[in-house]
Amino acid sequence: MVERFFIPDRQVRERAVLIGVALPAQSKWHVEEMLDELALLANTAGADVVDRVVQERSRIDPAFFIGQGKAESVAKLVKSYEADLVIFDEDLSPAQVKNLERVIDAKIIDRSGIILDIFARRARTREAKTQVELAQLRYLLPRLTRQWTHLSRQQGGIGMRGPGETQLEVDRRRIRERIAKLSRMLKKIDVGRKVRRVGRRDFFRVAIVGYTNSGKSTLLNALTRAEVFTEDQLFATLDATTRLARLEDGGKVLLTDTVGFLRKLPHHLVASFKGTLEEAIEADVLLHVVDVSHPNFEDHMVAVREVLDELNILEKPSLLVFNKIDCLNETALLGRLKEEYPGSVAISALKGDGLDTLRITMHSYAQRFGVKAIQGSMKESN
What we know:
Helix content: 40-55%
Radius of gyration: 23 Å
Strand content: 15-25%
Mean pLDDT: 81
CATH superfamily of the domain at 200-369: P-loop containing nucleotide triphosphate hydrolases
Distance between the termini: 30 Å
């Protein structure tokens, strides 16, 4: 049986070197910005970044991604820092990882690998763990060649000749079987979700979407007293949580917090979390929460729209919510954003600023869609 691919929490933090490549269509500044985000991912995963390397290339090297000469240079850098791992900001092919590991005496991890590591640590519920394991196995399957090279040969000698599977083939078959089993489990979980959605069909449903660490869970807590776990780190929560939010007229709407988005979010991760993200697909309106204090918040907005487009809900009615205004030094920015994005709301979910305005705006959306008031002290969660 294939063991779960979760990576356990480590007590000792590892030392990491980050690698980025600037192609002709990309500026070195943009690559540096992406490495800043990669450094946050590494920190969340439990690694301290000791250095970073940006290489300007005309094209990606098919064998070493950064070229053999540069790989040898990175190997010397890793040795000088006594680094444990090298993290690439792009996805690597199995062949590239294998070649890099021959040159560099450290673990080689790509962007998808580090994101999956974080998701494995953050998963708490049965559904989240199932979704993460499925994504990890889909990620692992094409990389089994390098993971199991020491087991990929059949034993020779007297009594060992004849037909049979190599260990590599056995592991591939078992992983495919496990993927099929996890997919069936998620389908059963999704059936339960659909049953719950039937009961909510007559109520106004709002899904909170946004870039990771934009304050979505803090907003859910502020509007509903849900007490969902929050932390100033990427992907603090993975599970969709639904609670009742009170509107200005005393009516209530169903408000759902969803998993945070990220630039270059692995496609197999989006596929595995499709059931969770269907809460956004089924919603009447999206609350797109933006951390307006982040220097690259507009790029984050683009990344969120790309994921929404992948889910075919980009055209769904949405309300833009600029969060963390209490962290802004430049107050003139809010005026510019109000002109550029009419109808948007500026708030501080942590301090409570602007929440009344947000409730009033949500109420107007609810009236537009013919919200049905929810009576009593009903409380829902996924």
